[in-house]
């Protein structure tokens, strides 16, 4: 059994490309799969190619070759990657493969032997060399200049800001450290320089991402601050954009970030991958097993910042998970009352140590537990949404069409959380605007309101 896309929490927003090539300009297409971290890699590759005189094609037919940036997070992600490679070969014929699944080149070439090249994750120079071989550059020195800002695959008003590569955790179900290596944090000044350029270019929301955001900088031997994520968060908060923190492990020092949220420097939003609540399951996952202390931390965060939104993802049907252990997870969720919750059913992944664990859970039981989990999560979300009716909040406008303005509150990350819709007197709104609205209606995950 494989998780369909709507059961997977590792997906990035849909990439958006709007380039018009000049006559005769070499043109590259890009299919970007997987998480926001992979989307940032795609943006970096396209930025370099644009600077070398390549145009970026939004479709297969207009491209001289297509890069498929793959995901290898789960077997369903691998299957999606192989399917995307096959589609690109069918529609274009000249395909270069990169990304996490590129760490297993034989897996790719075994299914698709006609791909032109395979490179692994964040191997930017190797990708460029492969593109040069497949589609030689032909820059026009009078036209093709380095763009003032990098290529963005997201709407202009928000951008992902990747602050580190790799991960030092050894979770048994995950092979990302094998593919992307140990934690390697970007220098503080480099992150700030990129963030400043993004804000200068009109970005209103910075989505801070890495594999383990709260561990940022702890790989530096000679560091002034014990936990470099704290000064980085404070400095980012000075830029005047919304700053949203993703993939934050609940280390004790995260409590020191909460005052920044209460001050308004950082959005009161934490995306924390709890994964489970029963200590025995967490031990089998090789993750911290102090779920009770986590409830104490959550209470402390909410005490210091009552408006905080907590998002997390969970795995159901992990090998050996008993009905009692699953019930503990449901009871914990009842107590934690998380605002935003994603869940997926456990899958074996080639190379993961969890594959060898005993007592794998049958697919039918995984599905039944997923249904029960999401039913409880939906009920919690519905109650929290109803509690917002009548309140006045700030939202950022993502899209305006003939029917409504689609917006997000500070509690909503792009694509993975809910929306607030304004369907009256919205015609004057523009994407990227931050406006104040009064909430009038609520559903399970979404809100409706009007400009205050």
TrEMBL record:
GO terms for molecular function: 4 iron, 4 sulfur cluster binding; aspartic acid methylthiotransferase activity; metal ion binding; protein methylthiotransferase activity. It holds the Pfam family UPF0004. Residues 153-383 form the Radical SAM core domain. The keyword Zinc does not apply. Keywords: 4Fe-4S, Cytoplasm, Iron, Iron-sulfur, Metal-binding, Ribonucleoprotein, Ribosomal protein, S-adenosyl-L-methionine, Transferase. Binds 2 [4Fe-4S] clusters. One cluster is coordinated with 3 cysteines and an exchangeable S-adenosyl-L-methionine. Residues 26-136 form the MTTase N-terminal domain. It catalyses: L-aspartate(89)-[ribosomal protein uS12]-hydrogen + (sulfur carrier)-SH + AH2 + 2 S-adenosyl-L-methionine = 3-methylsulfanyl-L-aspartate(89)-[ribosomal protein uS12]-hydrogen + (sulfur carrier)-H + 5'-deoxyadenosine + L-methionine + A + S-adenosyl-L-homocysteine + 2 H(+). It comes from the Bacteria. GO terms for biological process: tRNA modification. [4Fe-4S] cluster 2 binds at residues 167, 171, 174. Residues 1-28 are annotated as: Disordered. It is found in: Cytoplasm. Residues 386-452 form the TRAM domain. CDD domains: Radical_SAM. Residues 7-19 have a biased composition (Basic and acidic residues). The keyword Iron applies. [4Fe-4S] cluster 1 binds at residues 35, 71, 100. Its cofactor is [4Fe-4S] cluster. This is Ribosomal protein uS12 methylthiotransferase RimO. It comes from Pseudoroseicyclus aestuarii.
